[in-house]
Amino acid sequence: MKAYQVSKYKRPMRVGEVAEPAVDDRDVLVELHAAGVNMLDAKIRDGEFKPFLPYKAPFILGHDLAGVVTRVGTAVTRFTVGDEVYARPRDGRIGTFAERIAVDEDDLAIKPTNLSMAEAASVPLVALTAWQALVERANLQPGHKVLVHAGSGGVGAYAIQLAKHLGATVTTTTGTSNLEWVRDLGADVVIDYRTQDFEEVAHDYDIVLDSQGGDTLAKSLRVLKPGGTAIGIAGPPDPDFARQQGLRLPLRLAMTALSLKTRRAARRHSVRYSFLFMRASGAQLDEITKLIDINVLRPILDRAYPFDQARQAIAHVEGGRTKGKVVITMV
Questions:
Q1: Which tens digit of pLDDT belongs to each residue from 193-223?
Q2: Cis peptide before 58 (omega within 30 of 0)
Q3: Does residue 244 have a pLDDT over 90?
Q4: Is residue 236 reached through a cis peptide bond, with omega within 30 degrees of 0 on the bond before it?
Q5: What are the φ and ψ backbone dihedral angles of 326, each rounded to 5 degrees?
Q6: d(CA 209, CA 160)
Q7: Which of 75, 81, 88, 253 has the most Cβ atoms closer than 10 angstroms to its Cβ?
């Protein structure tokens, strides 16, 4: 089958023929119709996560899929041949920039019926990130004040919609050209990062979802009320993450050091910092599907590229000016 492989870290991926995926007892073989493109793909290609998430070259990139089940393992109970599905395959088993992929059935969900394959492929990673940040990690409640950075990005667009649905008052940051667009998603307060400093506008928030890191994260700690939580998806990783990953002691110590300044600042402001590296979950995707089916959540497609332009699709995402998600279509 055809797939895009990375032959060595920091090298561009190239298309070629690869072996068909092996299908274990709990696996589902999916013929891909579309795949989402994420900054995570570029970061893994460049080895940014190699210390705690290594891939043996050559490896196939791609963290989102939509397609049709063509085969199921002997122990699979939830899916049958012909099902239309979508997923974010688990770490260590990525590879959706290909014609087919084998996915653990626990990572899969039935595709929302009202979405095209391209729309469905744009959903899993970013929607799961928003869900795990706001529902699972922050335990968002009605009446909470939530600040979502980069509201026009893939995660931000879902976080705005989800937080609003859950009863929060939602503030977001975005560029001048997207102000009305994020209001349409449900944002109550919109801050133009080109002309405004969000720290001067936002005060006493319960939750901040930060996708920027650096100075933005430092300021985010200061706009929280005492007891509030800043959830970072750009880093730095914290000791809880290192423990969850089961990393060796030297790497755990290194991650503890990386986040020390941020955690100390959080303590000074009587708030909490938590790093989130999202994980695959078919069960959570089922919950997201319910919200998509009743139009509470809607996917935002920036652009779809054909399979033979996958490298251009990654370059588009790396440019950092996407509105919603970029996808690759196979059929």
A1: 999 999 999 999 999 999 999 999 999 999 9
A2: yes
A3: no
A4: yes
A5: -105, 140
A6: 10
A7: 88
Tokens for 323, please give them: 């509105």
* Joined tokens for residue 17: 């023929």
Q: Which phi and psi angles does 28 have, rounded to 5°?
A: -120, 125
Residue pair 13/2 in contact (Cβ under 8 Å)? The answer is no
Average pLDDT value over all residues in the chain: 96
Predicted confidence band of residue 18 (pLDDT cuts 50, 70, 90): very high
Strand 205-210 and strand 224-232: pairing? parallel
Token pair for 67: 């397609």
Instruction: Please state whether the predicted TM-score (pTM) of the whole model is above 0.90.
Output: yes
**Percent of the chain at pLDDT above 70?**
100
